[in-house]
Automatic annotation (TrEMBL):
Protein name (Swiss-Prot/TrEMBL): SsrA-binding protein
UniProt gene name: smpB
Organism the protein comes from: Neobacillus vireti LMG 21834
Single Gene Ontology MF annotation: RNA binding
Location, primary (coarse class): cytoplasm
InterPro entries reported in the protein's UniProt record: SmpB, SsrA-bd_prot, SsrA-bd_prot_CS
Region annotation Disordered: where it falls in the sequence: 135-155
PANTHER family: SSRA-BINDING PROTEIN, TMRNA-BINDING COMPONENT OF TRANS-TRANSLATION TAGGING COMPLEX
């Protein structure tokens, strides 16, 4: 299966607005106890999440997984740090690239693939405000063109 194919549970749409995504990596994620049940129910938020390389491991910070309702004492901290499962060569490559100024690791999607929870992590470079405005203009122009084609097809 190609990257990003599966049942998408959560998406970080804000990441595409705030960053230029240069490369993407599919990573597994280490979960504990009832977290996977909560994720399957769609109770997860990637909005403020980011990843870092620490001690040779990729770690995901700020991903909010709501406590599972039937989990009682077995629930975990919703904002705990979670380890990402990547190959050593991918981690070393990301470590070198994130040391450059302006690069960050941003989770883009959380999805289920063959019963496993995967995270699509993007190597991202921050956009300036004028880049964001330009992207919005292009999006609006594309929408206008689509609308014109649709109206023309109706005639």
């Amino acid at each position: 299966m190609p990257k990003g194919v599966g049942k998408v549970v959560a998406q970080n749409k804000k990441a595409y607005h705030d960053y230029f995504i240069e490369e993407t990596y599919e990573a597994g994620i280490v979960l504990q106890g009832t977290e996977i049940k909560s994720i399957r129910a769609g109770k997860v938020n990637l909005k403020d999440a980011y990843a870092r390389i620490q001690n040779g491991e990729a770690i995901l910070f700020g991903m909010h997984v709501s406590p599972y309702e039937q989990g009682n004492i077995f629930n975990h901290d919703p904002l705990r740090t979670r380890k990402l499962l990547l190959h050593k060569r991918e981690i070393n490559k990301l470590l070198g690239e994130t040391k450059e100024a302006g690069y960050a690791l941003v989770p883009l999607k959380l999805y289920l693939k063959n019963g496993f929870c995967k995270v699509l992590v993007g190597l991202a470079k921050g956009k300036k405000n004028y880049d964001k405005r330009e992207a919005l203009k292009q999006k609006e122009a594309k929408r206008e063109i689509e609308r014109a084609f649709r109206d023309r097809q109706k005639m």
